[in-house]
Design brief:
- The structure holds two protein chains of two kinds.
- The radius of gyration of chain A is 22 Å and the shape is globular.
- By secondary structure, chain A is mainly alpha-helical.
- Chain A has a two-stranded antiparallel ribbon with strand order 1-4. A two-stranded antiparallel ribbon of chain A has the order 2-3.
- Helix content of chain A is 75%, strand content 3%.
- Chain A has a single domain (19-352), classed as ABC transporter involved in vitamin B12 uptake, BtuC (Orthogonal Bundle), CATH 1.10.3470.
- In chain A, helix 4 (80-101) packs parallel to helix 6 (144-165), helix 5 crosses helix 10 (237-262) and helix 12 (290-312) crosses helix 13.
- Chain B has two domains: 37-165 and 300-387, Rossmann fold (3-Layer(aba) Sandwich), CATH 3.40.50.2300; 167-299 and 390-405, Rossmann fold.
- Chain B contains twelve helices and 17 strands.
- Chain B has helices at 2-22, 59-76, 95-106, 120-132, 166-180, 194-210, 228-235, 248-258, 278-284, 303-317, 326-343, 356-364; strands at residues 37-40, 46-52, 84-90, 111-116, 136-139, 159-161, 185-190, 213-219, 241-243, 268-271, 292-296, 345-346, 352-355, 369-371, 374-376, 389-393, 402-405.
- In chain B, the strands form four sheets. In chain B, strands 8-7-9-10-11-16-17 form a seven-stranded mixed sheet, with helices on both faces. A five-stranded parallel sheet of chain B has the order 3-2-4-5-6, sandwiched between helices. Chain B has a three-stranded antiparallel sheet with strand order 1-13-12.
- Chain B is elongated and about 105 Å long.
- Classes of the chains: A mainly alpha, B alpha/beta.
- Chain A binds chain B through residues 39-41, 43-44, 47-48, 51-52, 55, 167-174, 188, 190, 192, 262-265, 267, 269-270, 272-274, 304-306, 308-309, 313, 318-322, 324-325, and chain B through 55-57, 59-60, 190, 192, 217-221, 223-230, 232-233, 235-236, 248-249, 252-253, 256-257, 260-262, 279, 282-286.
Chain lengths: 353, 406
């Protein structure tokens, strides 16, 4: 048994495990040093954690779009980051119109719902059009073709919106009732962060419910299992795919509004980095898997927010926050090396087999 | 028969030679310049190019400079009987943009001089290309000290600037913080660009020299949007002021997010000349209230700035200046025009010959030139500015910000 195991192991495995072990030791050592110096107080750690969770919630909603589309079409929709940008950028103008009409602070809940609706509808329409125009004609093409198309569509959408709304920054109006913070015991939670975290969790649950328990969800899952058989069973594959894009787009649009609550500036390039991070989160959690996307996104948000202070600081690296993206993508690489299917990916693969 | 044709031909040739000798004597111009000459035929324009950031979040910086150049062209009119033609490339305010702009411009031999770049990061990459192509390059807004430090690898022949070196700006900002705001603990943030990194370094060194403490020198991604975690980590050091000499996009976001980070509610925030833009007022919203920026002092400019330059700017573009380096760009164009007038050799038919090395020498020899930004005298390494740095403070919905120091 042991000999068998010895024979299967290769030099590459040893090197990879050594790298993994070295990184693990580095992370633990850095964390111990940082915590030992007591440079950051408990309140700072809590603040960092909350920022990470809020960010994670937004990533989760975007990641959902990647994961749903991958689940059903086996393609990475790289234009999803622009779907994410289109809704909130448009909604920013709606928000300013509401400010102009005097509704913004008078009926804040209604205003927020209107803005959410505008953003979700625009993102949803863009996603559906994207599928209809750019992906459907290529559905039978080799897998690389829709991928390249997606990248092209991404650029196209970016520059269309740049042409529409200009290349400058567009501030998102702040809401009086969302300024300041709530005290949960001794923990100070900023209202925007609380809304983002709670909103993301609620939307995530709703979407999970749709996929798991509705007729549409059932159709989506069967199309993702096998398109031909699903069609034979009387499921309209085109319609199901269209609706999947619509749901993913709406989630991205709503994620965009939560994102603007946290970082209230819209511009035409705002989708790029969140999109990339959400894609990472989807892969991290196991692409094609909805709870995986949520888990991966929360992990990524926390790593980005807490990681630099926790272990890079302790290792004596100057200006650690410059490296927060490096942490995110290093984690992606490590996950792909040690667990190519992602955190929850294997269960899905087994269930499908 | 054949012989007679040959004789006639020979006669014609001889006759034409004799006639030519009797006509006006033309000595063809011979270029003796070490790195070549540009010839401008009669009726053709003198070609000046720009490499400025004219798109994206930092576009006001470059567009404002380009407007400054166009004002200078309008005020100057023709140069030695030739029009001036301005073309240009986007430097993207980044190394990649500088590479692209530099490569494209270097391929065009009709260019006499280049005005640019907007950003020091672009300059670091574009200058080897532009300098290698023999151009004279004058930047209106590169402020990183390296670019004009003698012996530095980033100091290229033919490069000059009308913008101040950040050795001045960083020191002035530190003095303002320590003496006027009376803060003793400050933190800095840079975005990894040549400009921001050097400027915060000069600030930090000067601040420590004055007796202050630097609690953190953080760095962020200029394209990022989440700076709260970085700011939270900075807040742990309890600085009384944060100096972040970066660009419009990240600068606006940091201004907004700092107000929402526990412990930074009352911390002074200060940027630099890269954040002197109406886009900061738009991007930072209400959080812009009280934000300081260090920047060239507009009040120290020549009287012509108010009386001649600004009216022309408004006439041409229908707006007040949208950033801070328009006057520097105007001066950059003007010292180039003056240098061309000094070195160009003109044939009788109007053809101009401009020696490239001669033009560079003339630019470096610029002395006591009456510019809008002051009296310009260029150093042998290319520093032409006569810098007076001031501190300005933003208020909600107002542009330009108000001068508060000195």
């Amino acid at each position: 048994m042991f000999r068998n195991w010895m024979q299967r192991i290769t030099l590459t495995d040893v090197v990879i495990w050594a790298i993994g072990l070295a990184i693990l030791i580095g992370v633990i050592w850095g964390s111990i040093v940082t915590l030992g110096t007591g440079k950051y107080s408990t309140a700072t750690w809590i603040d960092l954690t909350l920022i990470g969770l809020a960010l994670g919630g937004v990533y989760a909603l975007i990641a959902l779009g990647y994961t749903l589309v991958y689940g059903i079409l086996r393609m990475i929709n790289f234009a999803h980051s622009e779907v994410f940008m289109s809704g909130p950028f448009t909604a920013t103008f709606a928000a300013w119109a509401l400010v102009g009409a005097g509704w913004w602070n008078k009926y804040p809940i209604l205003s927020l719902l209107i803005v959410l609706g505008v953003s979700a509808v625009v993102s949803s329409i863009i996603a559906v059009l994207l599928e209809r125009i750019a992906y459907r004609p290529l559905r039978t093409a080799p897998r690389l073709v829709p991928l390249i198309t997606a990248i092209g569509a991404s650029f196209f959408l970016q520059y269309v919106f740049r042409g529409l709304y200009g290349s400058g920054l567009k501030g998102y109006p702040e809401m009086t009732i969302l300024q300041g913070f709530w005290m949960l015991g001794s923990i100070r939670v900023f209202k925007t962060q609380a809304v983002a975290i709670v909103g993301a969790v609620i939307m995530m649950l709703i979407l999970y419910g749709i996929v798991q328990w509705t007729k549409l969800g059932k159709a989506m899952r069967s199309v993702s299992e096998n398109k031909e058989v699903a069609a034979l069973m009387g499921i309209d594959v085109d319609k199901t795919i269209s609706r999947t894009f619509a749901i993913g787009g709406a989630a991205a649009g709503m994620a965009g509004i939560l994102y603007l609550l946290l970082f209230p500036v819209a511009h035409f390039f705002m989708g790029f980095f969140p999109g990339l991070k959400a894609f990472t989160a989807a892969v991290l959690g196991g692409i094609g898997n909805v709870p995986g996307a949520f888990l991966g996104a929360m992990m990524l948000g926390l790593l980005e927010s807490v990681g630099p202070s926790l272990f890079l600081d302790g290792l004596g690296i100057p200006a650690p926050y410059q490296l927060k993206d490096a942490i995110a993508f290093s984690v992606l690489v490590l996950i792909l090396i040690f667990r190519p299917t992602g955190i929850l990916g294997e269960r899905l693969a087994q269930a499908k087999a | 028969m054949k012989k007679s044709i040959f004789t006639i031909l020979a006669l014609i040739v001889v006759a034409s030679m004799v006639l030519a000798a009797c006509g006006p004597k033309v000595v063809p111009f011979e270029c003796t310049d070490a790195i070549g000459c540009v010839d401008v035929a009669p009726g053709e324009p003198i070609h000046i190019a720009y490499a400025l950031v004219i798109s994206g979040a930092d576009e006001t910086l470059g567009v404002d400079s380009r407007n400054g150049i166009e004002v200078a062209m309008a005020l100057k009119g023709q140069l030695l009987g030739h029009d001036v033609q301005l073309t240009g490339e986007d430097d993207g305010c980044s190394a990649e943009g500088g590479q692209a702009a530099g490569t494209k411009l270097a391929a065009d031999p009709t260019i006499v001089a280049v005005i640019g770049t907007s950003c020091s990061s672009a300059a670091r990459v574009a200058l080897p290309l532009l300098s290698g192509a023999g151009f004279s390059v004058v930047s209106p807004s590169n402020t990183a000290p390296d670019l004009t430090l003698e012996g530095n690898e980033n100091n290229w022949p033919g490069y000059l600037r009308t913008a101040h070196s950040d050795l001045h700006q960083g020191a002035a900002a530190a003095r303002f913080a320590f003496e006027s705001l009376k803060v003793t603990k400050a933190a800095t943030i840079h975005d990894g660009s040549l400009y921001a990194e050097k400027l915060q370094e000069v600030f930090a060194n000067s601040f420590v020299e004055l007796g202050g403490t630097i609690t953190a020198q953080e760095a962020v991604d200029p394209n990022g949007t989440d700076f709260k975690s970085a700011l939270t980590s900075i807040a742990a050091g309890e600085p009384e002021m944060i100096y972040y000499p970066i660009f419009v996009k990240a600068g606006s976001l940091i201004t907004r997010q700092a107000k929402e980070v526990p412990g930074l509610e009352t911390t002074y925030l200060m940027g630099a000349d890269g954040m002197f833009s109406p886009d900061v007022v738009e991007g930072a919203g209400e959080a812009v209230e009280g934000l300081y920026v260090s920047s060239p002092d507009l009040a120290a400019f020549a009287a012509e700035y108010q009386s001649v330059f600004l009216p022309k700017y408004e006439e041409l573009f229908g707006t007040q200046p949208i950033s801070i380096f328009h006057a520097h760009a105007h001066d950059a164009a003007m010292i180039i025009f003056a240098a061309i007038e000094k070195v160009a050799v003109q044939d009788e038919d109007g053809t101009l010959h401009i020696g490239r090395q001669a033009l560079r020498d003339a630019l470096y020899a610029t002395a006591d030139f009456k510019g809008l930004t002051g009296n310009l005298t260029c150093s042998p390494t290319g520093d032409c500015a006569n810098p007076v740095i001031a501190a300005y403070q933003y208020h909600v919905g107002e542009y330009p910000p108000t001068k508060v120091w000195p």
